[in-house]
Write a structure and sequence with these properties.
This protein is an alpha+beta fold. It is built from three helices and ten strands; from the N terminus they run H-E-E-E-E-E-E-H-E-E-E-E-H.
Length: 206
């Protein structure tokens, strides 16, 4: 019995290692360092109200995240924006779904501050396919009004919890994270519990 429980513990630890190794935890960051000719993520906080980053109506733009292969349990898009005066200002975000553009909501924020807006994409049937192909995003600035302007600092596409921790302020590098997958933790706990039980039984017999 003790050998069986010890084997269970070893199997749990082995499965834990395999689970962590196979976990897909990725954060794709689009920011100033990888701007293209039609992208305007700002380079740092000091430039937030400068041309061409601080943009108003008729200066709409978009970007594309790197293509990422795999299957995912969570897909989140976080967009860092400066000077979003909600609810009066409406900077609308859309994502390409493979055939047309889908409205996923508007940016949230306050006057003269940097803030992330999180969009949960997992409920969209097409989201995983578009992440695999390279998620395309675009912004309609100050929808229905000519009174507002906005600057974007970065956009992070976070898959299965992500591999980086980011702050909304531009020019501040994201930092790597390493968090074991919950299912792996459960397997490790099962294995350790088995070992503890085996030791208690052996102590009672001696």
């Amino acid at each position: 019995m003790i050998k069986q429980l010890a084997g269970l513990a070893l199997a749990g630890a082995t499965l834990f290692g395999a689970s962590v190794a196979q976990a897909v935890a990725i954060t794709d960051v689009q920011e100033y360092s990888n701007n293209t000719a039609t992208e305007f993520f700002v380079k740092n906080d000091a430039s937030k109200t400068q041309d061409p980053y601080y943009r108003g109506p008729e200066e709409d733009w978009g970007w594309t995240h790197n293509a990422i292969a795999g299957s995912f349990t969570s897909i989140e898009l976080d967009i860092s924006a400066f000077d979003v005066d909600t609810p009066r200002e409406k900077d609308r975000i859309s994502v390409f779904n493979g055939s047309t553009w889908t409205d996923i909501g508007i940016l949230a924020g306050q006057n003269n501050i940097w803030e992330f807006t999180t969009f949960d994409l997992m409920s969209y049937a097409w989201a995983e396919t578009q992440v695999n192909a390279g998620l395309q995003v675009r912004m309609d600035i100050s929808e229905g009004s000519s009174a507002w302007a906005v600057t974007l600092g970065k956009a992070t596409l976070t898959l299965d919890g992500g591999s980086q921790a980011c702050v909304p302020t531009p020019g501040v590098p994201c930092t790597p994270t390493s968090v074991p997958e919950p299912s792996g933790l459960a397997l490790l706990g099962l294995g350790l519990a088995g070992l503890g039980f085996a030791r208690r039984k052996q102590a009672k017999k001696s």
